[in-house]
Amino acid sequence: MTSRTSDYAATEASLSAHAVPDWFRDSKFGIFIHWGPYSIPAFAPLQHERPDGSGDNVMQAFKYNPYAEWYLNTMKFEDGPTAQFHRETYGEDYSYDHFGEAFNASLENWDPVAWARLFKQSGARYVVLVTKHHDGFLLWPSKMPNPHKANWQTERDVVGELADAVRAEGLKFGIYYSGGIDWTFKGKCIETIQDLMDMPGEAEGYIEYANAHYHELIERYQPDYLWNDIGYPSQQASFDILAKYYNAVPEGLTNDRWIAPDGDLKADAFERPEGMTGVLPPKPPVWDIRTPEYGMFDHILPFLWETTRGMGHSFAYNKREGDADYLSPGGIATMLASSACFNGNVLLNVGPRGDAQLDPAQADRLKTIGAWLETKGQAIQDTRPVALPNKSIDGVNIGATRDADALYLQMFGKPSLGTLEIQLPSGLETVTSLEQLGGEVDDWSIKQGVLRVTVNEWADEAVQIFKLGLSI
């Protein structure tokens, strides 16, 4: 880990000296919130509705985008399911702008304290709120209002109220801002990856606008985490923002989504480590952590990362998704355990409904995973990853974490019952005890670095965990 300084300059060399704070490394679990005007229609195409072969067609992928927060873009495909839904539900000439009015009205029913208490109950240690998504709608009453849409922001200070509620529960608070896309400045339908990277810039007056928002968000809310999305229209402007941020919040951090059209493109910008799944954004010159989307790494890499995904196929609430579309509690537990074993965190999204209430199925999952972390969290949070000689045992993938007192062997599934042999990491302290968290161990021994353990009953969990007490 590089050293932390208290005076950062707006240069790549200076900003790259910033270190990821320990609170993030210890947390392992955060809550993402996508909530805005798009939560009113709460519609996105479902995966099975894509035409055969659409996965290989980029334009089809955007037309059938499963992210409900992309509603304003997907409705522009006149022959697509979102446009059809919009016409049939609201009428041909019904403007997306009306959803902003409806969203503001819904805030009368919003209780940020209740949300924060649930997030605390889930075992998460930080919360990241989308303050502006691609539709440009602001979740705080900014002094820099949108020049193209009147009242295109909340009347209530959603950002400030949630920050206060979350911090009152002892959680960290971060902000997401869509720096690379704002459809109120460039309203062209995004059909290709090239369209995605065609950011509004100086010609549209967007750089000054986005800069002002970032300065306002940093000064007003002192976010513990700055989560930019897509990219930023000016590399130097991004450096200026990060310097201001690091100097104001030295124990903060940022992500890896600051790529700029006028910036430097490193030779490894599009490097995709072997064994990863999902989408990985191109690497900018300055970043603290990598953020694979709907994806994971399956081994320890020389950087920290955070997987981000919705409980279903969408980040924002999609009323067409049901319980069967959401990750099971066991799936969430497996994701948390695997991420912790391989140097990562999980930023799991909650998509509130358009009536300012949380979806009961999503809320239930947060409560269930919170109960799981009460007993199993010792193997996840406040730990560091440990490399094992083998990646699997009996066909089940494995990983390990440790704290000062114990090594935790974690199995993402259930090996066969009976006697297992597991090669332990070299240089390990003397093992003084062994237990299976939530299960039973009949006998165990260690010889020449190999753990031999007999198990006749596994825990009734998706993740099986052995806790090895270590001599101090």
Automatic annotation (TrEMBL):
It is an enzyme of class 3 (hydrolase). It comes from the Bacteria. InterPro entries: FUC_metazoa-typ (IPR016286), GH (IPR017853), Glyco_hydro_29 (IPR000933), Glyco_hydro_29_N (IPR057739). Signal peptide: none annotated. This is alpha-L-fucosidase. Its EC number is 3.2.1.51. GO terms for cellular component: lysosome. Belongs to the glycosyl hydrolase 29 family. Alpha-L-fucosidase is responsible for hydrolyzing the alpha-1,6-linked fucose joined to the reducing-end N-acetylglucosamine of the carbohydrate moieties of glycoproteins. Pfam families: Alpha_L_fucos. GO terms for biological process: fucose metabolic process; glycoside catabolic process. Residues 4-377 form the Glycoside hydrolase family 29 N-terminal domain. Keywords: Glycosidase, Hydrolase, Signal. The keyword Signal applies. GO terms for molecular function: alpha-L-fucosidase activity. The keyword Repressor does not apply.
